[in-house]
Amino acid sequence: MELTLTLIITQILFGLALGAVYIMMASGLTIIFGLLDVVNFAHGTFYMLGAFAAYIVISLFGNFWLGLPCAIILVGLIGWMTESLLIKPLYGKDPLYPLLLTFGFSIAVTDLMRWIFGTIPKVIELPKGFAGSFMSAGIFIPKYRVFIICLTIAVLLFLWFFFKKTNLGMIIRAATRDSLMVRTLGINVPRIWTFGFALGVGLAGLGGAVNSSIVAAVPDMGVEMTVECFVVVVIGGLGSLGGAILGGLIIGQVISFVSLFASDWSNVAIFLTMFFILLVRTRGLFGEAGRL
Amino acid sequence: MKNDLRPKVQRGAGNRTVWLALLVCIVLPFVISIPLATEIMIFGLFALAFNLLLGYTGVLSFGHAAYFGVGSYACGMAIRYAGASIWTSLLISIALGSLLAAIVGALAIKKRGVYFAMISMAVGQMFYFLALSPLKRWTGGEDGLKFIPRLKLEFPFFVDLGSPYPLYFFVYIIVGISILVIWRILNSPFGRLLQAIRENEERTIASGYNVTMAKFVSLVFSGFFSALAGGLFTIYLGYGPLHSLYWLTSGTILLMTILGGMHTFIGPVVGVAVFLYVQNQFSRYIERWELLVGILFISLVLIFPDGIVGTIKNKYLERKADDTSPETEPELNAKTETEG
Amino acid sequence: MKKASWILGVIFLFTLMVSGTASAKPIFGILLPLSGPFSAMGSDMKNGTLLAIDDVNAKGGVLGKPVEYILGDDELKSEVAIRKYKEMVDGEGIKVIGGGLSGATSVAVNEWACKNKALYMAFCYSSMPLGKEYCGYGFVAGMIPYQSGVATARYSFKNLGKSWMMITQDYRFGHDQLQAWLVTSEKLGGKFVGNVYSPIGQTDYSAILPRIVATNPDILVLNIYGQSLDSIIKQLGEAGLTDKKMKFVIPKSHENTIKGAGSFYTQNFYGGHNYYWAQQDKYPGAKTFNDAYRKRFGGPPSMDSDNGYTGAHAVLDAMNKAKTTTDVPKLIQTLKEMKFQYNKGPEQFRACDGIRMTSVVIVRGIGAKAKGWDLGEIVAEYPVEETLESCENNAKDIPFGQVKLPGK
C-alpha cells in the first residue's frame, strides 16, 4: 500500500468525521462535569439510548429528520428523570457516589435494553440523499460523514451562542463558578443542575442517533464509548469545552492514522496518547477551571 | 445517620471479627461448593488489597485489574515457560505486580483523584489490549494462557493442587496469612496515617507528613496483594484468562468492596462472598442477573452506602450508644470504637 | 422494617441454597452464554439442546429414564465456565459436559476436561482437534474454523474472481480464516492483495475504507464476526460499495447478521453456514428439525441450533449405546464409532480427532427482498471431504497452522 497524498488527505477527513462524534459526546460530558462535578459513567449508555430512540422513531414514522431531534428530546427527558431521582440525593456526599451510581446505572440499563430489544443489531436506513461519497482526485468521503461534521459544527455554534449570549447560558456559567452565590440571588440552582445534566446527556443521545446509521444499534454499543469519551475529555482537560473539542480532534486523527499503519494497535493507541499527555500536562491540554 | 467518612481507631478487640471470618472460612468449602469457596478467598484478598487504597487511603483506582491480571499472567507464564515451582511463580507475580504499582505510583500518585482514576483505568485498558493482540504469542490472546500442567506443590510437603480440597486449603492459608499481614499494616501508625490522608489530606500535609510517599507505599502494597490474588487465581484455574485484565473486573471488585462496606476492614471480603454466592445462585434461575447487579449497585449507593458490614456496624454502635446511661460524658462517644 | 428485611433476606438465601440441590442425579452438564451480548446465539444453542433432549426422551430417555441435565450460563467467560464445570464434575459427579459458543472458552475447557477426565462435547467452532490442543476427551459438534475458510475460498476463486483483500478481526478465529484463505489461494491461483487487522470491538471502519477503495480487489473478505460485521456492512453500503462490482465473502455468516444488515446484504454477498434451514429441500431430517423448531420456538433454526442439537443428541445416544453415563473411556469409544443422521446427511465424529464430519453451504444474499425466513439462496454445498484435512495433518496443525500471518 503506497502512502500517497490523496490517501493521507482522505485519512485526515475520516479522522475529522470520527472526531466529530467524539467532540459531541465529550462536550456533553464536560458540561455535566463542569456544572455538576459529576463523573457520568453512564454517558455511553445515553449514547446507546439515543441510537435506539432514533431507531424507534424512524421505524415508526419513516422520517430520518424526525429521528434526530426526537432522540435528543427523549434522551434529555430520561436524563432529567435520572438526575432528579437518582443523582440529586447524592449531592454533598463523597464525589465517588455519583460515579458509582452512574456506573451501576449503565450496567442495569444496558441489560434492560438487551432484554427489551434483544441483541440483534438494529439498522437505520439513511435518507436517499446521503448514500454514496464525495469524490475528487482520488480523495473521497461518504456524504453522511460530511453531514456529521457539519452537524457537529452546528451544535458547537449553538452551544457557544447558548452559553455566551442567552440568560440561561449565563446563569449556568455562573453556577459552574459559584453555585452558592447564584443560589443566594434567588435562582433555583438544583433545577439548573437537572437541566445541565439533561443537556449533557442529550448531546450524547444525539451522538448515538447520528452514529446509529453507521454502526448498527446494539445495547452494548455504549460500553466502549464511555471509556473513549473519558479519554477525550481527560486529554482536553475535565471541565473545559475547548479541551473537549481539541481532545476529540486529536483522538479522531490518532485512530485514523494508527488504523492505517498498525491497525491492531488502534485500541492501545488511544490510551497511550492519554497516558503521555497526562504525564506532560497534569490537567490535560486546556486544564480545568470549569470554563464553559 | 453519618453516612460517609468517620475517624476510626482500631483496637485489639477488632481482631475478633477477623479471626471469626477466618474460622468461618475453614468450614466454608463444606457448606457451599468448593470452587466457589476458593474464588471467594481469592477475590476476597483482591478486594482487601483494593480497599487498602480506596477505603483506607481514599484513592480510587479504576484499573486495578491490571495488578491482578499481571499477577495472574506472570504466575502462569513462569510455570509454563520457565517450569518454575509454585512458590517461585507466586513470588514473580508479587514482584511484577508491586513493580507495576510502583511505576504507576511514581508517575501518577500526585495527581488529583479523578485523574488518577482515569490514568489507572488507562493502564488497565492498555494491559488488556496488549495481552489481547500485540503480545498474543506469549499471552494466548483471547484464548487465555493455556497449557499449564496439572499443578502440585512440592515444598514443604506434597500437595496435589489439582484436587479441590487441597487446593482450597492451600489458597486459604496464603490468603489467611495475607489478611493478617494487611491487618497489621492497617493497625500500625502507618495505617492511621493513611486514614488521616483520607480524612483530610491538606491537614495531614500541614502536619508535616510525607503524604505522597505514604500514598505511594499504599499503592505498592495494594499492587503486591492484588498480584498475589491474581497468581492464586491462575493456580486455582490451571489457566490464565484474559478477562482478569478487563475493566469490568476492576468495576466488579469495586462493586463488591462497596457492597461489603469500604469503611470497614472485613467488609470487602463479606461483599465478595455475598456477591459471588448470590450471582452463582441467581444465574441459575434468572438470565437477567446483570440487570439485578446494576439495580443492586444503585440501591447500595442510594440507600446503603456503608455496605453490609458497615450498616451492621452502625446498628451495633447505635444500640451501644443507646445502652449507655445518660450521665455518661458525651465526649466519650467522640472517639468511636469500631470492630474489625 | 429493616429487621424484617434482614429476616426475609436470610430466608431467601436459605431457600436458594436448599433449592439449588437437584433431586435426581444429572448426567449431562451444559453451559452456554445465556446472558450478555451473545445471548441470542447462546439461546439458539439452548433451544437446539432442549429439542434434542425432548427427542431422546420421546424414544425412552437415557437407559430408560428421562434425561436429567443441568443447563447454565457461562457468560462467555472461560473462568466462569471452568468454575461451573468444576462444580458439576467435582460436586455433582457429572462425567459428561458440553456447550460453549466461544472457541477460546472451548479450548480452555477442553484442556481442563482432559486434566479431570471428563468427556467434553463442544457445540461451537473450535480448534480443539488441532495439534497439541487435542488430548482425547473432547469432541466438536461445530467445525474447525479453517473449514469455513476453505469452503468460502474455494467457492470464491472458482466463481467470483482472483484478487482478494481481507479484513481480519484480530483474534484466533479470524487468523484461522486468514490462514485457510492464504493456503487455498495459493492452490487455486488466487491473488492476495492485502490484509487489515481490525481489533475486536471496532465498530467504525471509516479509517480503512479508503484503503479498500484504493486497493480495489475483486473479492473483499469480511473476516469479522458479531455486531462489528453488521457495522462494516452498513458502512460499505453507505459508501456506495455494496452494489458495484466488488464481491463480499463472509467465511462464517449468520442469520442475525443478514437480518441486521438489511438491504445492504446484497447479491454481492456470500456467506458460509454449516446449517441453513433451506437445506430441507435436500435433507428430510432438516425439514423435521425446522418444523419442530418452529413449532416450539417460533423462528427458523440457525446453525447454532443445529450444532446444539447434534452435540446433545449424539452424547445422549452414545450413553444409550454404551449403556453407561459415567464410564468416560467407553463413552469416548462409542462416540467415535457411532454413525448418526439428525438434521442433514449421515454423519459421524472422526475417531482420530473428534471433529464432526459435516458440510458447509454457501448462501448468497438477496438484498432488500430478505424477509422473515427467506434470507438468502443456497448456491453451493461443500461436503466434509473438501474442507477437512487428514488426521495426520490435523495432528501436526498443518498446513494452516504453519502459515505466517502477514504483518505479525
In summary, what is this structure?
With 292 residues, chain A is an all-alpha fold. Chain A has helices spanning 5-36, 43-61, 64-87, 96-117, 143-165, 167-177, 179-184, 189-211, 221-236, 241-261, 266-280; strands at 133-136, 139-142.
3D architecture notes:
The complex is a heterotrimer of chains A (292), B (340) and C (408). Chain A has 292 residues and is mostly helical. Chain A is 73% helix and 3% strand. In chain A, a hairpin with a 2-residue loop joins β1 and β2. In chain A, α1 packs antiparallel against α8 (189-211). The longest helix of chain A is centred in the N-terminal third of the chain and has 32 residues, at 5-36. Chain A is globular. The model of chain A has no long low-confidence stretch (mean pLDDT 86). Chain B has a single domain (2-247), classed as Orthogonal Bundle (ABC transporter involved in vitamin B12 uptake, BtuC). In chain B, strands 1-4 form a two-stranded parallel sheet. Chain B is 70% helix and 2% strand. Chain B has helices at 15-31, 34-56, 65-82, 86-108, 113-132, 136-139, 164-186, 189-199, 201-206, 211-237, 247-260, 267-285, 289-303, 307-323, and strands at residues 9-10, 152-153, 159-160, 337-338. In chain B, a hairpin with a 5-residue loop joins β2 and β3. Chain C has 408 residues and is of the alpha/beta class. Helix content of chain C is 43%, strand content 16%. Chain C has 13 helices and 14 strands. Chain C has helices spanning 2-19, 39-58, 78-92, 103-116, 145-159, 172-188, 209-215, 227-238, 255-261, 284-297, 303-322, 328-337, 391-396; strands at residues 28-32, 69-73, 96-99, 119-122, 138-140, 163-169, 191-198, 219-223, 247-250, 269-273, 339-340, 347-348, 360-365, 376-382. In chain C, α2 packs parallel to α11 (303-322) and α5 packs parallel to α6.
| CATH architectural designation of chain B | Orthogonal Bundle
* Number of domains as seen in the coordinates of chain B: 1
Count of runs of 4 or more consecutive helical residues of chain A: 11
**Chain pair sharing the greatest interface:** A-C, 46 and 41 residues
Low-confidence stretches of chain A: none
Q: What class would the helix/strand composition of chain B place it in?
A: mainly alpha
Average predicted confidence as pLDDT of chain A: 86
Give the tally of β-strands of chain B: 4
Measured between the Cα atoms of the first and last residue of chain A, the distance is 44 Å
